[in-house]
Amino acid sequence: MDCQYIVGGLATLVALVLLKILILGKNMKSTPNQTQTDNTVKSYRDSKSMSADDNTGSTDVIIVGAGVAGSALAYALGKDGWRVQVIEKDLSEPDRIAGEFLLPAGYLKLIELGLEDCVDGIDAFKTFGLTLHQNGKRLKLPIPLADFHADHAPAHGFHNGRFVVKMREKAASLPNVNVQQGTVISLMEEKGTIKGVTYKTKSGQELIASAPLTIVCDGCFSSLRRFLCDPKIEIPSSFVGLILRNCDLPQGHDHVHLIFADTPIIVYRISSTELRCLVDVLGQKVPSISNGEMATYLKTVIAPQIPQELYNAFVSAIDEGNMKAMFCRRMPTSPYPTPGAFLIGDAFNMRNPMTGGGMTVALSDVVILRDLLRPLRDLTDSAALCKQLEPFHALRKPMASTLNMVADALHMIFSSSSDPVIKKEMREACMAYLGIGGALSSRFTALICGLDHRPLSLLVQFSAILVYGIGCLLLPFPSPKRLWVAARLLLGASGVIFPIMKTEGVRNMF
Hints:
Blueprint: H1 2-24, H2 38-47, E1 61-64, H3 68-79, E2 84-88, E3 101-102, H4 104-113, E4 125-127, E5 129-134, E6 137-142, E7 155-157, H5 160-172, E8 177-190, E9 193-201, E10 206-210, E11 213-216, E12 234-245, E13 255-260, E14 264-269, E15 274-282, H6 293-302, H7 308-320, E16 324-330, E17 341-343, H8 358-373, H9 382-389, H10 392-395, H11 397-414, H12 420-434, H13 438-449, H14 455-474, H15 480-504, H16 506-509
Parallel strand pairs: 1-2, 1-11, 2-8, 5-13, 11-17
Antiparallel strand pairs: 3-7, 4-7, 5-6, 8-9, 9-10, 12-15, 12-16, 13-14, 14-15
Helix pairs in contact: 1-14, 3-5, 3-8, 4-8, 11-15, 12-14, 12-15, 14-15
Function: Catalyzes the stereospecific oxidation of squalene to (S)-2,3-epoxysqualene, and is considered to be a rate-limiting enzyme in steroid biosynthesis.
Keywords: FAD, Flavoprotein, Membrane, Oxidoreductase, Transmembrane, Transmembrane helix
GO molecular function: flavin adenine dinucleotide binding; squalene monooxygenase activity
């Protein structure tokens, strides 16, 4: 027991030293001042109209897709006076198991965009912490909102469709934002510059929409991304989603629960009466829902590992048969510089949905893009527009890369690792290290929630947990077997984090 405290103290000291270096060296690039161009924006708004007789055209920006990213961007640009046309394939309320959890950092971005009221009136549920479950042990980690001056920004769980509908309504309420249903067929290119899109209306009529800037954010199933980037999509697993009713979360109704079973299981509230349960199933091929294979798998393999308080509701949800499955996609950014066109959201960059960071990254990208466009009075000069938007990919790196790496590293170690020893030892090291409490556990939670979005903080936390795990293996006496396990743990963990860092771009991150 004394050795455990010694190792904990050493790991804590390492982490604190690295954090001190990090704090002293903190001098990261920030997004452009959000108020520096208010007068320009107002002047621009006063000089523009939505008239089709305007010689410069009736639209400044075309947005393809009206999900979270597209709707938020339409509202942000519309508020700044740009004339925006949004084309969405289906304007009915979405019914999906993705996009149901907004991190505190994402809610802060909603506030920055003036969209925080979109979580009102949809029975959204506020979440204030994370509870980890491992072999019958439970560890509660509160979200350190006060440490980041974000007391008014808890996480929110909700039905994705209700949230998206509110976002669309908010965007469409602006007189210079036109939201319409249609299917974009292709991008229109002229001399290497995108000039707009061709699309089909709901009635099947084929039309052309022209604008100096086209922003594609049509989600993970994007049909246009291949023209604007080099997509390399990985699908390590799938999430199977169920809705649990008439039950309460064990020891913390206002927490997200991460259950380390044979495969990770995530449970969180999406309304005052409903819990979302997501079960990670490795591989691209999952048991069939239609023929009952999935129900059998969930009842025989997963149900016995569910906390007792949730067991009956879990089995009832399986019997109801209302299960949905989605691929867990991972796609690093690899854009082509394309004059007149831009790519954001899941069409541009995806990470494992295990930590729910997708909407937060998208909203952060929207804020950055809005601020970059604010100094401009005219978008028709494609060369000037490209130069103005050039810093976007560097400015998004801290938030996007940190959330990407957290999600992908956690999933690769705790779920998809092919070495059961690494999975077991890292889970135990993580539980024991975070059980120390204090600033170290709060920093870990802050990273998952996007409140601390410094890649170096992630590297510090990852290293400290790894040091702690290896130290517990080697003390008090390192047997040959323990030395071998420690070596496998070090090599396996390094083989996860460093390739992810390389993919994200080390230079831009740091």
